[in-house]
Amino acid sequence: MLQQLEKSKQSQKVRIIDADAHVNPSADMWADYLSPEFRDQAPKIEHGEDCDYVVFEGRRRKLNLISAQAGRKGEDFKMHGRASDARAGGWMPKARLEDMDADGIDTSVLFGGGPLGTSNPDLFKASFKAYNRWLADFCAYSPDRFAGVGYIPMQDVDESIEMMRECARLGLKAVNIPAFPMTPMKTLQANQSQAMALTGDASSDRSYADPEFDPFWKAACDLGMPLTIHLGGRTPRFTEPKWFLSDLLMSKFSMGEPIGIMIFGGVFQRFPDLKLGSIESGVGWFAFAANYMDETWHKQRYWVNSVLEKEPSYFWDKNIYGSFIHDRVGILTRNMPGAGNIMWSSDYPHSETTYPDSMEWIDKLFEGVPEDDKNMIISGRAMEFYRL
């Protein structure tokens, strides 16, 4: 009888889904995936005596490795180095599967390695498409274990809709948008263009609550395409030790701003099937945010002429999801309004990753949590959100 029970438990093994993992495509992939008219402008790798360098648009910069530190202890982290120092699973699917097997991960949802940090607006937009094509090919290596998230700009609505449709045709499971709309511009600052893909323009007069963006939300609903914002409210200054740690903290909390804009602006009221994921934001603040929004809405809704017909927490519960890495507080508040749609992630191969000890981290984080609740957070909710 005991053997039968053990076999039954094993047959019901929960599928572990990493709701936020990453790829780091090598700099030389752009020459293969950019459309032909841009390939001669693609970045190139040069090998120096001290480290590898990325040569692009007249600039020569050291290869940044902080997003590829999986498997190293904190005291061994290095900001710059050679491509061979980076975790191979960041751009090689076979190596990635080996790392997933070693870490107990069944399916990885894969975020970002684009767009290019260019000063050319046309190349900037083309690099979104190139990255999405590369990611689709990466995922095709093992489609049952890789789930890709495409990246699109939010400058022109019609253009963004077409890019989203292309992501759907490529088999990508979600699309990532900047936290705020991008301001269309004729020139870019190369050192800001990649950050803009995550943050957009927070000072813009345009808002995702504006009717201008309603066709995009409708298209997402029609496609069944979930949307994500990834650390977009504030981008940490990754290369500046003075600011890095405090920036990381604020990058979590600042994700509340785009969520608040969309909830208070009635986006989810107009499009009840729209799903938005706040990714790598942590979730321990969700319950506070939903409660605070409810209380302020009740008192302030009249003079601000609120369009909402239900409390903000209603929409947070129905439309907003979030991922975390090591957030015991978020797990413990999971039954509070606004805090239920949460998903575990490893953040591989970034420096915050739980790799190669993800199973130990899960055991520690979920100590005392009922098995059904735990299984939803490490598996079921990501399957629901990404429609796996």
UniProtKB/TrEMBL annotation:
It comes from the Bacteria. Residues 17-388 form the Amidohydrolase-related domain. GO terms for cellular component: cytoplasm. InterPro entries: ACMSD, Amidohydro-rel, Metal_Hydrolase. The keyword DNA damage does not apply. Keywords: Lyase. SUPFAM superfamilies: Metallo-dependent hydrolases. It holds the Pfam family Amidohydro_2. One of its GO terms (biological process) is secondary metabolic process. The keyword NADP does not apply. One of its GO terms (molecular function) is hydrolase activity. This is Amidohydrolase-related domain-containing protein.
